[in-house]
């Protein structure tokens, strides 16, 4: 059942709107408010699928109601009700986010058609929000420990923004999963996520890799080539192991962040880019700054939001879930039957010192599945999980 709120100070008009909507469709539950302040109170305390709101009202006019609703519940479509002299204002409210407007006295067909379309749109918006919160299984972050729950909460809050995020944590903890979650839950999800492993690219090539080059910029530059920032335009770039980036490259990344512009190696032409930057490192960047290997100004540009991914030894409660996840994934990849792990086997795995973190655990699970019995036992763990 769709719940509609009519905010209108003229009692006669309010009654007509409520009567039309209630009689036309028995799935509409219609409530009313005689002014903007009462309307806002109802909106704060109840869930509505659509709001019909008059423009000229005492205490709080329709424009103020519209602006308030867009802050507290932006997904609710609002149809403005305009008198003859309010048409210009009604049109302007659409620029502020109103779905549509209807004139007084309301035309029956126009009213019902507008309401139906607005409710359909609301349903689509809600479905899209639900879909955005679902992340590809490929990049699912497994765990229910307090540390992982906090990270998931941060991701849900930060992903819809363009805030830069610095992800820290030891090798093998899943920093790249955090980056993928942030991208897939963002408004940039339909665009590219470009990953750059800064540690894997020689320092003399990192600038060309990031910003591209023009023909003749260096010996092997046989043609113009776009860099990773251009490839990520409109989307997200993930600078993994940024602590290994050379100081000259850091300076150029800083400029790209400050000005949203880059220059290809060998060119003095600016190229405007619209890129969200995520970065990750296993290094203590504050220590790197103190020792002159990392720019402090770049650190502050990147670390708008800090996400610290814990070591597996600090989230041992998640190991049973991780074992189940990897068992299912490995069975699917190998086309085999999923193997069960005994309680004692899992308990023993929880007691291990996981210096290689999630990556190491995954390798051990695969080894146990291949070498262990029909059910992986405590004995199997003792035999095959040793380092």
Describe this structure in words.
The protein is α/β, with parallel strands linked by helices. The protein has three domains: 2-132, Response regulator (Rossmann fold); 137-310, P-loop containing nucleotide triphosphate hydrolases (Rossmann fold, 3-Layer(aba) Sandwich), CATH 3.40.50.300; 313-384, Helicase, Ruva Protein, domain 3 (Orthogonal Bundle), CATH 1.10.8.60. Helices cover 45% and strands 16% of the residues. The protein contains 16 helices and 14 strands. The protein has helices at 11-24, 36-45, 62-72, 87-95, 108-133, 146-158, 175-184, 206-211, 228-231, 247-259, 285-290, 296-302, 319-334, 343-351, 357-371, 378-384, and strands at residues 2-7, 28-33, 50-54, 78-82, 100-103, 165-168, 193-197, 236-240, 261-263, 270-272, 276-281, 305-308, 340-341, 375-376. A five-stranded parallel beta sheet has the order 2-1-3-4-5, with helices on both faces. A five-stranded parallel beta sheet has the order 7-8-11-6-12. Strands 9-10 form a two-stranded antiparallel ribbon. Strand 3, helix 3 (62-72) and strand 4 form a beta-alpha-beta unit. Helix 14 packs parallel to helix 16 (378-384). The chain is extended. The model has no long low-confidence stretch (mean pLDDT 90).
């Amino acid at each position: 059942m769709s719940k509609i709120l009519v905010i209108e100070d003229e009692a006669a008009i309010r009654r007509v709107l409520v009567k039309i909507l209630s009689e036309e469709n028995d799935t509409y539950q219609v409530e009313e408010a005689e002014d903007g302040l009462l309307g806002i109170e109802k909106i704060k305390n109840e869930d509505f699928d659509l709001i019909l709101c008059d423009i000229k009202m005492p205490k709080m006019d329709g424009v103020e109601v519209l602006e308030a609703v867009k802050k507290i519940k932006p997904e609710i479509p609002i149809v403005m009700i305009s008198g003859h002299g309010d048409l210009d204002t009604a049109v302007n409210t659409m620029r502020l986010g109103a779905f549509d407007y209807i004139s007084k006295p309301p035309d029956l067909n126009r009213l019902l058609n507008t309401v139906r379309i607005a409710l359909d749109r609301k349903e689509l918006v809600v479905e899209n929000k639900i879909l955005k919160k679902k992340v590809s299984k490929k990049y699912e972050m497994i765990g229910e420990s307090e540390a992982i729950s906090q990270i998931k909460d941060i991701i849900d809050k930060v992903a819809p923004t363009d805030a830069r995020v610095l992800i820290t944590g030891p090798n093998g903890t899943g920093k790249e999963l955090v980056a993928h979650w942030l991208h897939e839950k963002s408004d940039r999800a339909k665009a590219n996520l470009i990953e750059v492993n800064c540690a894997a690219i020689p320092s003399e090539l990192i600038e060309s890799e990031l910003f591209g080059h023009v023909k003749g910029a260096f010996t092997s530059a046989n043609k113009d080539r776009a860099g990773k920032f251009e490839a990520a335009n409109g989307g997200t770039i993930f600078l993994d192991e940024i602590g290994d980036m050379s100081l000259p490259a850091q300076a150029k990344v800083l400029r790209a962040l400050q000005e949203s512009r880059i220059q290809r190696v060998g060119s003095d032409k600016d190229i405007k880019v619209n890129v969200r930057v995520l970065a990750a490192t296993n290094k203590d960047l504050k220590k790197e700054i103190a020792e002159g290997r990392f720019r402090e100004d770049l650190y502050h540009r990147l670390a708008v939001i800090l996400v610290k991914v814990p070591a597996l030894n600090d989230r041992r409660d998640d190991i049973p879930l991780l074992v189940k996840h990897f068992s299912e994934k490995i069975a699917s990849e190998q086309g085999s039957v999923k193997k069960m792990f005994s309680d004692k086997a899992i308990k023993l795995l929880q007691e291990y010192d996981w210096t290689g973190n999630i990556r190491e655990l995954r390798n051990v699970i695969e080894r146990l599945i291949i070498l262990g019995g029909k059910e992986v036992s405590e004995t199997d763990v003792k035999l095959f999980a040793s380092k």
